[in-house]
Amino acid sequence: MIIPGKYLLFLGAARDPLDAKTAYGLVDWAPERCAGQWRLPDCGIDLGLPDLAFGQAHAAGAETLVIGITPFGGAIAPEWVAPIVAALEAGLNVASGMHARLESVPEIAEAARASGAALFNVRTPGTRYAVGSGRKRTGRRMLMVGTDCAVGKKYTALAIARDMSAAGLKATFRATGQTGILIAGQGVPIDAVVSDFVAGAAETLSPDNETDHWDVIEGQGSLFHPAYAGVALGLMHGSQPDAIILCHAAGRTHVDGYPDFALPDFAECIETNLGMARLTNPMVRCAGISINTRVLPAEARVAHLQAISDRFGLPCFDPVATGAGALVAHIAKTFD
């Protein structure tokens, strides 16, 4: 799936930045492709991009309207239909990471037919996958795991792959969600794969490779999430990670949107993930801890990360604020 041109990011009426993680991810990791943003009047989010009408965006070089928000359940909201139709009529393609296919909405399907514009359903698997084989593959794999959803697993994987490559190590970011796929240009929308085939899809995502090559795999869900533990487990078994990276958002105490579910202690989370991962790779180990410190004062960040590092004897970093250099050095030293 190759999505053409620059993007106009659709934000709808989103008010919580967590709902716009697709848009934020594209701005942070593919800024050269982001021409502007389009918002409904009551939207509470600003990406810092120009607010462009659809015709203006097309004239500015944008070719595709990307739905930059991912509401719970992945449905296309009724109030989005008219703007999406208008974008198609203005000559823009539309790309969506929703579970619902764009053409399932009759007005959108008709507008696309009439304009000749393309519809891209990024969250729809483009192929059929086999069930997981459990076969040991050549090469090395690093999987991001989390205390919760939306804690920075994608940002962590992107930062690690970037910093490993900069250090001369062989590394490839492997996308498992719609935002990562839009950034990388390829990947598997793992949460849209039928559950029996999730492990097989993960095997396809990280095939045999050179013995010193690392696939840095974007994680999904969390083993401690009451709704999304299943996708996390299937991805883990198919990935067969040699290393896991624990990801967490500082200040978060319970599963987002599930106040009755407290987040696990780091030690419990690490050991549970290692225990589950040993089914397909008995030699797996935790290589580091990634903390999204966005809510912390800048002057408290270093001490916070250092305290966690001292407790576990592992590199602890913020993928945005500090980068993954400490982890890369640890990997180069401990995995021979």
Automatic annotation (TrEMBL):
Q: Which residues belong to any copy of the D-glutamate N-acetyltransferase-like N-terminal domain?
A: 45-125
Write down the InterPro entries for this protein, in alphabetical order: DgcN-like (IPR011669), DgcN-like_C (IPR035086), DgcN-like_N (IPR035402), P-loop_NTPase (IPR027417)
Ranges for domain D-glutamate N-acetyltransferase-like C-terminal come to 131-328
| High-level lineage | Bacteria, Pseudomonadati, Pseudomonadota, Alphaproteobacteria, Sphingomonadales
Q: What is this protein called?
A: DUF1611 domain-containing protein
Which residues span the membrane? none
Pfam families in the cross-refs: DUF1611 (PF07755), DUF1611_N (PF17396)
